[in-house]
């Protein structure tokens, strides 16, 4: 099963930056002992990282959004 890409360009760069930011938040929260914040930020970072590396977003698909330039 292959999924069509629907994340590209500027959208992909923004998601990558947010993934890095959430990773920093997760590490800092975990070091301070705030496990809930660390876990939530970590899960968010993993989700955005998945979107960036695969160029696929389930929410975009559900909403009919495609931010690629049409290149395959």
Describe the structure.
The protein has 72 residues and is an all-alpha fold. The protein has a domain at 9-58. The chain is 68% helix and 0% strand. The protein is built from 3 helices and no strands. Helix 1 packs antiparallel against helix 2. The longest helix is centred in the first third of the chain and has 23 residues, at 9-31. The radius of gyration is 14 Å and the shape is elongated. The model has no long low-confidence stretch (mean pLDDT 94). The chain crosses the membrane at residues 12-30. Residues 4-68 form the Inner membrane protein YgaP-like transmembrane domain. Keywords: Membrane, Transmembrane, Transmembrane helix.
Estimate percent helicity.
55-70%
Low-confidence segments: none
Mean pLDDT: 94
Rg, alpha carbons: 14 Å
User: What separation lies between the terminal Cα atoms?
Assistant: 16 Å
Q: Structural class of the secondary structure composition?
A: mainly alpha
How many H/I helical runs?
A: 3
Largest sheet: none
Compute the number of strand runs.
Answer: 0
Keywords: Membrane, Transmembrane, Transmembrane helix
Protein name: DUF2892 domain-containing protein
Transmembrane segments: 12-30
Pfam families: YgaP-like_TM (PF11127)
